[in-house]
User: Fold this.
Amino acid sequence: MKALVFYQFGGPEVLTFEDIPTPSIQPNEVLVRTKAIGLNFADVYRRKGNYHLVGEPPYILGYEGAGVVEEVGTEVTSLKAGDRIAFADVPHANAEFVAVPLEKAVPLPGAISFETAASVMLQGLTAHYLVHDSYDVQSGDVAVVHAAAGGVGQLLTQMIQLKGGTVIGLTSTNEKVSTVQSLGAQTAFRYEDDWVQAIKGQTDGRGADVVYDSVGATLVDSFEATRIGGTVVFYGMAGGDPKPVDPRMLMDTSKTLTGGDLWNILTTTEERIRRSNELFAWIADGKLKVQPPTTFALKDGASAHDYLESRKSQGKILLLP
Assistant:
């Protein structure tokens, strides 16, 4: 089979498209012919050597996707060849075939395309736990969303509103501001603006109830934009590591810092399927809009990584075998 691989850490140029053996499946796995594969910043971190990576060289990136079951293991009875599934948290997805553990296989409704499924498995499920578990958004809450025009940001912006909250988006360009506003955000500001003061101006000086920070380097400012007793949810470092947080500040302002990791939430097959089905239902009903993804051929994975790191992208980037 063909796969996107690399032998040493570095920039996008280390990625090559090569023939490697098709994986053999275990009794509790299914072999999936991938139709769409999600690209995420975690793949960039892994390529650079800054993030956990499974296996030995040649390394294969990718942890989410969607496709068709080609073969089932001897212990698998709930799926058969020809079934459409999506998956997340499955390594080595940047390939034509992936061995997917049954516990991580999510049946795909007919109304959801492979491209849509690969666009929302990681980012959609991340947004889902952020608004339900990291901070349970209540009707009337004001929420600030960093990188609001990105893949998670767009879905998070919409889910906050589905729960009755109001969104203030943060992004990098006027074009992205328009994108965020088109999703129903009350307003959006650019990072080059004095966005902390702008947020306070939008909230009568009190600050937001919750700030969702996926940038990292902005964490101190996120606390400044949060009301007394408010919460900052830290769930990414796309803009670099955050500065240490002073616990005295947390005590003096009664503010809360909480982290977020999807894999602390998706601990059972039932939980994966329940949350995925809720996402799929929102999409099918038109309550959650998924922007058409930017697609690259799997063989052009280096170009896709370049594009993701350029910060020019809006929404999801997919690799198509």
